[in-house]
Amino acid sequence: MDIALPIQLHLFVVIPSIILGFLNLFLEKGTHLHKINGKFWVVLMLIASFSSFFIMPTGSLTWLHLFAILVIVTVLVGLLAIYKRNKRLHIGCMFGAYLGTVISAVIALSIPGRLLHNIMF
Question: Are the C-beta atoms of 20 and 98 separated by less than 8 Å?
């Protein structure tokens, strides 16, 4: 499989998910805008996480893929939590998923030889 397409898809959804996630942290909670933005964010996060499993520069999964699994679980639990009206769990899961995404992006950016590092430096 050509690795370029999965990387392009991954970056195409990760970058806006970081921006939308940041915005949702500051939007008034429970508003229509927060909910719509959140739905887009969830879709982007899930696409980003699943697309990462097709990015294997070493030929196999790496420890960075653990972030993708963690994000998938926390986003889905957070989504279920808000439907069950558990705001505290929802906030914790969504913030955790966002933070995990930012941390994994920083790690990917800082490792020499990775595409994002090569692009930026």
Answer: no
User: Is 50 exceeded by the pLDDT of residue 83?
Assistant: yes
> How sure is the predictor about 87, in pLDDT bands with cuts at 50, 70 and 90?
very high
Q: What is the pLDDT of residue 82?
A: 96
Taking a C-beta distance cutoff of 8 angstroms, is the pair 89, 77 a contact?
yes
Burial 54-77 (b: 16+ CB within 10 A, else e): ebeeeeeeeeebebbebbbebbeb
Contact 48, 13 (CB under 8 A): yes
Higher pLDDT: 14 or 112? It is 14
Q: Is the dihedral of CA 30, 84, 36, 10 positive or negative?
A: positive
Of 55, 62, 68, 57, nearest in space to 101 by CA? 68
Give the Cβ contact number of residue 21 at 10 Å: 22
Q: How many CB atoms lie within 10 A of CB 98?
A: 23
